[in-house]
Amino acid sequence: MLKQFKQFIVDTVGLMITGSRIYYAWVAFLLLLIVLGAVAYAGQLNDGLIVTQMRDQVSWGFYIGNFTFLVGVAAASIMLVIPAYIYDWGPIKEITILGEMLAVTALIMCLGFVMVDIGRPDRFWHIMPLVGHLNWPQSMLAWDVIVLNLYLLLNWFVVTYLLFSAYLEKHYKKALVLPLVLLSIPMAISIHTVTAYLYNGLAARPFWNSAILAPRFLASAFCSGPAVLLILLQVLRKTTRLKITDEAIFKIAELMSYTMGFNLFLTAAESFKELYSGTEHMVYFQYLLFGVEKNGVHYNTLVPYAWASILTGFVAFLLFLIPKTRTNWTTLNIGCVLIYSSVYIEKGMGLIIPGLTPDALGEMYVYRPSFTEIAVAAGIFSLGALVFTIMLKAAVPMMLGEFTISKGRKGVDHPETDPA
Amino acid sequence: MTDLNLTQAPDDCATGSSCGSRREFLGTAVASVAMALTGCGKLTKEEFLQNHFKQLSKTEIETIISRLESEYKAKYHKDVKVGVEPALPGVIFGYALDLSRCIGCRRCVHACVKENNQSREPEVQWIRVLEMEKEEGVNLQHSEQYYNPEEVPREGHFYMPVQCQQCKKPPCVKVCPVGATWKEKDGIVVVDYNWCIGCRYCMAACPYGARHFNWGEPHLKDADVNPATHYLGNRPRPKGVVEKCTFCIQRTRKGLYPACVEICPTGSRKFGNLLDPKSEIRQVLETKRVFKFKEELNTQPNFFYFYGV
User: Fold this and answer.
1) Is 0.95 surpassed by the pTM of this model?
2) Are residues A272 and A285 in contact, defined by beta-carbon separation less than 8 angstroms?
């Protein structure tokens, strides 16, 4: 068994490092961006976080915004698991592994964004359970460290096990996989809930201190994550022999329309409460949606983004809701892009910045990410894309049974996986 | 909340060989990686492996203090004394600030920076003075920190200095993922600058903007260094960690006033032992009507505001 696993690893790496010119070009492009990010990060390590635009007033920014958004993407893999395993719906079952790989990728990016945000990465061991001094159960960040890593391990294990079984030309053990896959449902909900609680529990920041923050996180996550998957599935079935039915795609799109509607409803509920009651806590919403006037200066940096997010979210909802546009590839894909951008704004900068502006003492500090922050973020996203690409590169032929322990080594052309 | 007590027997972790060797192993394995990661060649193995302050034995603390003192000597070319004086028994420090007397001169801000070895470039200030409109009362949306008139106080305005409120229920302590900040027995909330990972969660949690981050390398000229320091207080800080007001722990645990109290030209600042019925702070609580800033958040500050006249 161990010997076979060793062979499996060797073959996986082999699949990852061989490919067509397009594959190499794509990987090289990603590596270039990763190097750019690494250089920017080296500068940040050297000079400190002062090279970002974060300051005492807005002490979290682009990095933590991306982190929060990506936790949602990671959680969204269960949008495939639920129909496949709870409702035992065949057409999606074969592709749930793609959702799990997306979760692994998103989590690696999440951990990357946390790592680049901390001031003392050399002390990362302080936050490791057992060796360090984890302030658990008090600190929500301690909880987050635990659940994110468990979810990463869980998905990693399931993906590896499924592929290893396929590689050995054996059927996976249902008694092992099913409980784990079912466990991943509450785990996915918990990672995003805990991440929401991270903000939710701070009474000092009224923008975050709202009971529907966690439900809003989940609703928006179940819009943005599947949007990535829908586009990916279309790419994969064009470029590989992977069979993905229209039915599966439309089913996911239908489920998304419910979560999108719910997400809009929750956003409206939150906005109504803040704007209608109009207490002093309204100022954060006001900064986000309309801009704030203070000491003769008008601060409205976020306004266009906030409305773009609402508008794109609403249009995407309509496109997904109406069966005719949901089953039309053009409008479906436009809808995917729109909802992805909507949630990216809403759960990224649209969440972090108004939470911290005005600051605890009422100061207006206008935060815009610096070049370093953008370069580092690009590096992390590229790292994610690279991880996902090479995982797919090895996984697809194994899923198809084209590459196993006994066949596929030579002669068989490895189906190309297109970058997504 | 346990307190720093040097007479206490060393705890399990310090004496138990398993814990030590585990760290030792981790250290040798990862120290070099960490150095590469942080781009910080100066990071010594001792510093990398240093345990949480409250888990250190007396001898470990002594070693760390002498290491720090020699590092400071090399860096600032003078003898810096790093104290570890524990909380005095029967003392909880309280602070009261008279809003009707404060004129917004900001002498406290600068005395604080001088006393507490804050970075001068970029300058870190633990006290923020808010200029408020008299017609609005205490209203943060009508406040200004960067006021710069010819003369203070400005017509129609009053001033509200804000610093760490040393809460009885500090949200910053609750959220810290690694327990790098805690409340001492005398009510002072401190940070172990050698344990803080710089995640800045405490800054998001603090309703008073009292926590400050060393975004860049703190720059402090040799001549500006105050050599009388405390490990949990004003010793020079490294880059990438959070710091805050400690009621001048290095002074108040020796019976001195905090620097801001001493410098205030209007006598707006009152300080003392809340457990001593004859203390100045108790006199204020007894004879004046005090309020707590952002009382509704239930952080229960040991810092009070009042209108003395």
Assistant:
1) no
2) no
CATH number at residue A143: 1.20.1630.10
Q: Are residues B163 and B150 in the same domain?
A: yes
At which of B59, B79, B99 does a domain end? B79
When scoring A68, A117, A126, A283 by the number of chain B Cβ atoms within 10 A, the one with the most, hence best to mutate, is A126
Closest of B275, B282, B277, B278 to residue B306, by C-alpha: B282
Specify which residues B82 forms β-bridges with.
Answer: B229
Shared-domain flag, residues B95 and B183:
yes
For residue A360, the chain B residues in CB contact (below 8 A) are 206-209
In angstroms, rounded to a whole number, what is the distance separating the alpha carbons of residues B142 and A294? 7
Question: Are the Cβ atoms of B26 and A204 closer than 8 angstroms?
Answer: no
Q: Is B25 on the interface with A (CB under 8 A)?
A: no
Burial (CB < 10 A; 0-12, 13-18, 19+), residue A273, is: middle
Q: Which of A159, A144, A302 is nearest to A217 (CA)?
A: A144
CA terminus-to-terminus distance, chain B = 38
**Residue A122 with chain B: CB contacts under 8 Å:** 34-35, 37-38, 40, 43, 48
Range of the domain at A301: 12-399
Q: What is the interface size between A and B, counted as CB pairs within 8 Å?
A: 164
CA A136/CA A147 separation, integer angstroms: 12
Looking only at Cα atoms, what is the longest distance across chain B? Answer: 67
Which among B143, B174, B297 is the nearest to A139, CB-wise? B174
Give the domain CATH number at B273.
3.30.70.20
Which tens digits make up the pLDDT trace of B89-130?
999 999 999 999 999 999 999 999 999 999 999 999 999 999
Look at strands B242-244 and B211-213 and give their pairing: antiparallel
Range of the domain at B31: 1-79
Q: Name every residue whose Cβ is closer than 8 Å to that of residue A129 and which is 6 or more positions away in sequence.
A: A136, A145, A146
CB B299 within 8 A of CB B207: yes
Total structural domains in chain B?
2
- Cβ pair A227, A340 in contact under 8 A: yes
Q: Clarify whether residues B107 and B20 are in a common domain.
A: no
> Domain count of chain A?
1
Looking at CA atoms only, how far is residue B86 from chain A in angstroms? 22
CA distance B119 to chain A (A): 13
Euclidean distance between CA atoms A379 and A36, whole angstroms: 7
> How high is the ipTM of this complex?
0.93
pLDDT tens-digit series, residues A59-78 = 999 999 999 999 999 998 88
Could you say which of B63, B79, B95 is where a domain stops?
A: B79
Of A118, A120, A125, the CB nearest to B30: A125
Whole-number pLDDT of residue A410: 59
Across the interface, whether the CB atoms of B26 and A125 are under 8 A apart is answered yes
Residue of B nearest to A292 (CA): B141
Distance from the Cα of B43 to chain A's closest Cα (Å) equals: 9
Q: Which residue ranges of chain B lie beneath pLDDT 70?
A: 1-42
Contact B178 A133 (CB under 8 A): yes
- Indicate the residue of B198, B203, B205 with minimum beta-carbon distance to A56: B203
- B234–A contact, CB cutoff 8 A: no
Helix (H) or strand (E) holding B271: strand B269-273
User: Angle CA(A116)–CA(A119)–CA(A123) in degrees, nearest 5?
Assistant: 95
Q: Do A204 and B171 touch (CB under 8 A)?
A: yes
With beta carbons under 8 A apart, name residues in chain B contacting A201. Answer: 175
Q: How do residues A324-358 score in pLDDT, each as one tens digit?
A: 999 999 999 999 999 999 999 999 999 999 999 99
Q: Decide if B89 touches A, using CB distance below 8 A.
A: no
